């Protein structure tokens, strides 16, 4: 498939796909006319790249990781090294810390929203009572 088709199938812009190529994350074959051509495997690869970016990994780390993953199922390949496992464990721990921090922030916001909502509700009732008293 050509780059535009890969962009449509993966939901990633052609510009991003070209960037992935410059970073060594994606390789397409060139036709005699110079157009990029990708196999069906590329859709899984691009989706995996997007997931790794979303997890906070940078392109250098992703470039180290991708050769150690199979495109079809994302399982480790025989190229995985102990250092890579250590690096990935550290990344997972970093993500877990971020999740913990986000949950804590959400909990604080929930408390603020609950308190603010109760105040708004009480204020609305108070105004309604005052308006009714002024009419009666």
TrEMBL record:
The keyword GTP-binding does not apply. It comes from Streptomyces sirii. Keywords: DNA-binding. It comes from the Bacteria. This is MerR family transcriptional regulator. Residues 1-68 form the HTH merR-type domain.
